[in-house]
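In this supplementary section we document a worked example of the pipeline. Step one takes a protein sequence of length 567 as its only input; no multiple sequence alignment statistics are reported here. Step two produces a three-dimensional model, which step three serialises into structure tokens for compact storage. The input and output of this example are shown verbatim.
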Amino acid sequence: MFRFASPQYLYLLLVLLALAAIHYYIIYRKKQQVKRFGDPELTKQLFLGVSRWRPEVKFWLTMAALASFIVALARPQFGTRLDTRERMGIEAIIALDVSNSMLAEDVKPNRLEKAKMMVSNMVDGMKDDKIGLIVFAGEAFVQLPITSDYVSAKMFLETISPSMINVQGTDVAEAINLSMRSFTQQEDVSRAIFVITDGEDNEARGVEAAKQAASKGVRVYVLGIGNPNGAPIPISGTGQYIIDEEGNTVVSKLSEEMCREIATAGNGSYIYVDNSSSAQKKLSEQVDRLAKAKMESQIYSEYDEQFQGFILIGILLLLIDVLLLERESKSTWLSSLFRRGRSVSAVCLLLFSLAAFSQTDRDYIRRGNRLMRDSVYDKAQVEYQKAIEKDNTNPISHYNLGNALLYQNKAEDAMKEYETAARLEKDKTRLAQIYHNMGVILQSAKQFDKAVACYRNSLRNDPTNDETRYNYALSLFQLKKNQGGQDNQDQQKDDKGQDEKKEKQQEQQKQEQDKKDEQQPQPQQDQMSRENAEQMLNAAMQDEKATQEKIQKAQQKRQPKQLQKQW
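The serialised model returned by step three reads:
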């Protein structure tokens, strides 16, 4: 796709047409003046050494040079194309334990925060690898599908907490099995699972799951975090600790023996995590030892601007114009060059200055891109902001600025830039990526309704993106889950309201019946009261039965997997 970034400069071509008209009018006037002296054939002998065609050629050389510079000022560009890039990398799934026992503070600041810092440093060291994130306790679910989007990985990592999973415990086997189902279908790629846990595997099926993973060529590494002597588990915001059924303070201990068994069965290795940085170094070494396989990924590459060629053509044309003399003379071309070089140099300098000024915003973008590749995000942000000051209608500047802000964990500011880029962008491929990034921010903020809308817009522009489809499905599931919980609360309110309404009706019936009883003889009153009591008792029993049936159905629908341990 071809376009001009600054097409308004093309109107200067009309000025060239006006100059051409003036040029030929001057030639006509000169011919008329020559005729006044006499016969044209005789007057030619008076202009010895004057060339008839050289001035015309020089004029059109100058016009062509100016046209080339004008086209360069208009900034000709080519569109995007789809490239397939080969890279060397691995696929890694991080299975992070988020049970309450991970809040123990025997590792500072606590086990979970220490694990998140290690994963974040691990992501920073990746270049061409793919990473996925799974959280587990008594259950396991995918927090982030396997991807090469490291920004999303770090954002989802920050939102992890024990409150994400209602079923407590530590089921390592479920985490390993889910990790095996989360890898891509690409062949000949090294795969590894990194389980970060305190080792209290209540289900005791982790060793068997690790053996099955190893039989399929997937290594299982276990990072045991905590102290073997144990530590109490604090209750957030209370200053108290979790207690067991007997009222004793729970002490969570790292089970190193079990961690080693799982790592050995998974053909991996065990890494002990404490307050030092040795575990991080060992983790990096294990990642580097994994065989790197060629992985293909499709990326959209943007062509650079093509103004340089037009400037070069213009310079060559001006150079020819300078070397070509108007008169047929025996004087050297060097003398002519010195006579006219000063004026030509001034013209070239002016045109170069205009061209450089028109390219300033692109230069800022290129410098920002280089800084982004070097992970200097704050300086890249400054370059993109300068580009926006020069041209605030370029969606690429706003999109790149959003990426730089996102890498600095400035999600709100990044969201504003993405929204601006979405309004300006016309290319469907880039527009799909913009909406995808917006969906990631909203999903991490648990605004699932808005995230679903963004992912839907992304898929409308690029329905082939697997990561967007997965994130869309996950956000939709989380949205329905939240709505389901709200519906249950509404249903309970409705049931309570109906019960109150029935009680009021029964009370009203009782009052009306009491009034009737006052008008009846005493024996009849006793008989009616007894019948009324039986009716009320039957109605209450039916209401209680219906209420119990509703509760049982709701519990059956939401009956989770239960473990004995609740930490």
